[in-house]
């Protein structure tokens, strides 16, 4: 049981004030004289029950106030729901992400945005944050329960300009920066999901130091090597293996996992697997299907008002004592 609009209960104060005032006021006798004057004269049944209509009206007013407060009855349901965790999404925004490698005719970043967006939408009770990186990390969205805010910032994500000072792949600094965002989190589970299509080529922060920091803080790092590495040479364009040693060791040392995704379907499968891995369950109680009970108060209130009107204005059989 609960009240939908409990502030209406404040109306009980004037109702009770009026009721007390009426009770303390000298009433009128059946013949129009004062009860004080006729106090010693035997009264009729009507004179003895003159207080009754007012009492009925007061009780009806109390019931109507209760109806205005909207009493609700909910059906209790026990459900198994996901316990919230904190996740930092770390996405490579170096110039190589503008190339088509995961899917033909689509840049890597476009494909990654679509896959990560579906991952974000699937998380129900988690705080999510978004961080992009090239040579330097950039906080796109702090940890939040507002999935829409994360999705909006994800769609606005752009790669850095090729061969600029910002271009590069600084995996160590990205992971270290993400760990600093999770450092003060009180969540039982904290996770970094790092996605890159390249290899570490900027050593602002030693990746091993970033890995140690995550391990000390109890943060798991999932690493995803996405797309194909294609280079132009004398013999034309050719695909070369991605050096995944760093990504594998970061994941292994922190209790996470490394994934290799060469196309869009594989990348989607990776995020689906991470979504399944990073879910813990607890039993929670929710109240649903609320039923309004105000009619159970309005109907008797109307009956009391009608009865009060009948007693105060209707004919009486006079019985003297």
Walk me through what this model shows:
The protein has 321 residues and is α/β, with parallel strands linked by helices. The chain has two domains: 2-76 and 289-313, no CATH class; 84-279, Rossmann fold (3-Layer(aba) Sandwich), CATH 3.40.50. 39% of the residues lie in helices and 24% in strands. It is built from ten helices and eleven strands. The chain has helices spanning 12-24, 45-48, 51-68, 108-122, 147-155, 171-182, 207-217, 245-254, 264-277, 295-313, and strands at 2-3, 71-82, 86-92, 127-133, 137-144, 190-196, 219-226, 229-233, 236-240, 258-261, 281-292. The protein has a six-stranded mixed sheet with strand order 5-4-3-6-7-10, sandwiched between helices. A hairpin with a 3-residue loop joins strand 4 (127-133) and strand 5 (137-144). Helix 3 (51-68) runs antiparallel to helix 10 (295-313), helix 6 (171-182) packs parallel to helix 7 and helix 7 packs parallel to helix 8 (245-254). The longest helix has 19 residues, at 295-313. The model is unreliable at 28-41 and 316-321 (pLDDT under 50).
Residues in helix, %: 25-40%
The profile of the biggest β sheet is: 6 strands, mixed
| Count of DSSP strands | 11
Fourth CATH level, the homologous superfamily of the largest domain: von Willebrand factor, type A domain
State the low-pLDDT regions, or none. Answer: 28-41, 316-321
In the sheet with the most strands, the strands line up as 5-4-3-6-7-10
The tally of structural domains comes to 2
CATH class of the largest domain: Alpha Beta
Q: Roughly what fraction of the amino acids lie in strands?
A: 15-25%
Please identify the structural class as seen in this structure. Answer: alpha/beta
Provide the residue-averaged pLDDT: 81
């Amino acid at each position: 049981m609960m009240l939908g609009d409990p502030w209406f209960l404040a109306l009980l104060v004037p109702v009770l004030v009026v009721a007390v005032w009426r009770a303390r006021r000298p009433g009128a006798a059946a013949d129009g004289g004062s009860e004080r004057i006729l106090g010693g004269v035997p009264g009729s049944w009507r004179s003895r029950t003159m207080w009754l209509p007012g009492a009925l009206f007061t009780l009806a007013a109390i019931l109507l106030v209760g109806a205005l407060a909207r009493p609700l009855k909910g059906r209790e349901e026990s459900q198994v729901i996901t316990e919230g965790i904190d996740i930092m999404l770390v996405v490579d925004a170096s110039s190589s992400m503008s190339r088509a490698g995961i899917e033909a005719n689509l840049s890597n970043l476009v494909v990654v945005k679509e896959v990560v967006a579906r991952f974000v939408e699937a998380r129900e009770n988690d705080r999510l944050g978004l961080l992009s990186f090239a040579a330097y990390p950039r906080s796109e969205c702090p940890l939040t329960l507002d999935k829409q805010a994360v999705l909006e910032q994800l769609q606005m994500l752009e790669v850095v300009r090729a061969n600029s000072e910002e271009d590069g792949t600084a995996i160590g600094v990205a992971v270290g920066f993400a760990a600093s965002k999770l450092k003060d989190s009180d969540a039982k589970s904290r996770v970094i999901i790092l996605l890159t299509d390249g290899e570490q080529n900027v050593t602002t922060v030693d990746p091993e130091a970033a890995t140690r920091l995550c391990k000390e803080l109890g943060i798991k790092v999932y690493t995803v090597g996405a797309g194909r590495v294609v280079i132009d040479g004398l013999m034309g364009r050719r695909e070369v293996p991605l050096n995944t040693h760093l990504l594998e060791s970061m994941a292994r040392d922190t209790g996470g996992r490394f994934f290799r995704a060469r196309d869009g379907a594989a990348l989607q499968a990776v995020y689906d697997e991470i979504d399944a891995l990073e879910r813990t369950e607890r039993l929670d109680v929710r109240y649903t299907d609320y039923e309004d009970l105000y009619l159970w108060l309005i109907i008797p209130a109307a009956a009391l008002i009608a009865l009060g009107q009948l007693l105060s204005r209707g004919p009486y059989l006079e019985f003297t004592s």
